[in-house]
Amino acid sequence: MFRMVRLEAKRSIALLLFLVVAALTRVFLWMDVQQWAASWTPLVHSMRGTAWIVLPVVLAAAIWHGGRERRAEVSELFAATPRPHRVRLLPAFLVFAGTAVLAVAAVVGWAAVVVAGNATFDGGEWPLGLAVGLLAAVAVTLVGLGVGRVAPAPVAAPLGAVMLFLALTFAQVRDDRPANRLVDTVLPMLPVTDDFHRVLPAFSVAQGIWFAGLGATGVLLAVAVTSRARALALAPAVAGVALGAVLAPSGAIVPAPAATALVCAPGDDRICVTQVHSRALQDLIAPARKVLEAFAEVPGGPKRVQEDQVSWMFDDGRPTAGADLDTVRVALPYRTREGGIRWEPEAVLSIVAQEATVDPGCFDGQEEQRRAFDASGAITAALLDTPTDKLSPAARQAYDTLRALPIEERRRRIGDGRRAGLTCGDPLAVVMGREAGR
């Protein structure tokens, strides 16, 4: 068997398929590296997301290979050999399915090394998500081989690739349609998620059942010799999609409380980040302490700095009417395209100071946001002695106004401006000493 597999690999396009699939997976994963470089859940999502470009290539190659015998008009010659039909096709199944899996797995292995160097949380579900992605590649390969034997025409391979590509591309547009268990189960991609949420294992199991049935259909198509057998070959795929849709949970994406549990600085519970981002804590401590110390004499100033546990993607956010003025909640850009966590102290200080003075979610219009950010810049410069050369004219005027005030009055006005900025008022008007309003 090993000799036959080796010969099949040498006389087929398996090596070319391996190189193309590995290259495509690598390129499209690298384009999204800033999203997954420090967390396992986004890695699974990004890896599964490459299916829209990788699987059509796999399908085309498998269809082309599956129709090779009939295009060369040697089907009757091979049928006359003493080897059973199924045994003769087994090397093609092993070579092409193995090629697709090894190509994707090799790139995922590289990505896993990157994530392992940065991740601080392992929810335990990611191996199952990756395994289902590999199973999808196997299933599409087997279906391609079966379709190729049924329809050996040269146009079948490119036509199949284009149809699958278009189907997956349009299926990725999820914003305009509600969640659908049948559609989401069939797709090789995962529903959108983030670091603070996880995909239920039951959903991955349901997808695995569907892809197993699809692969079985591919095998049966490849070995079928009659029209009736080809029709019956569809049964595993139909059963798989039906069972998978029934078993799939209605809400596949759920919060991950363990990921959002807070981890605080040693000996200082005022500064905390989420467990999934705890590696970033060391870069937050110094800027956060500087902001807290600067606001210590400001009436109503913040008492702690915490990473925001609210997901901008799934959660509606906190009502501003009940805003916690004692806590600065920050959402920090902690990943880079190099795959590491690199925070510049000045950038972190700027982010923490801004979040301490205004809530950007309060202001819908550009003019309102501009005024809020001008007020934030003026307060930050006056309180932290940060550079003023990049302040806008309005922010500079507000800064000069604050600097001209007596120290106690300046602190009081900064506190009032901060309260206005966090409760959807007009912080710039307050800082300038005018009547607060919108």
3D shape: elongated
Total helix count? 21
Unreliable segments of 5+ consecutive residues: 336-340
Element pattern in H and E: HHHHHHHHHHHEHHHEHEEHEEHHHHH
Euclidean distance between termini CA atoms: 78 Å
What's the rounded overall pLDDT mean?
A: 86
- Structural class computed from helices and strand pairing: mainly alpha
Our estimate of the beta-strand percent is: 5-15%
Counted beta strands: 6
Radius of gyration: 29 Å
Please estimate the helix content: 55-70%
**How are strands sequenced across the largest beta sheet?**
3-4-5-6
Give a quick account of the main beta sheet: strands, pairing sense, barrel closure. 4 strands, mixed
Give a verbal description of the structure.
This protein is mainly alpha-helical and 438 residues long. Helices cover 61% and strands 6% of the residues. It has helices spanning 2-10, 14-31, 33-36, 40-49, 51-66, 68-71, 75-79, 85-116, 126-150, 156-171, 181-186, 201-223, 227-232, 235-247, 257-260, 281-294, 345-357, 366-384, 393-403, 407-422, 427-431, and strands at residues 197-199, 253-255, 262-265, 268-274, 304-307, 327-330. A 4-stranded mixed β-sheet has the order 3-4-5-6, covered by helices on one side. A hairpin with a 2-residue loop joins strand 3 and strand 4. Helix 18 runs parallel beside helix 19 (393-403). The model is unreliable at 336-340 (pLDDT under 50).
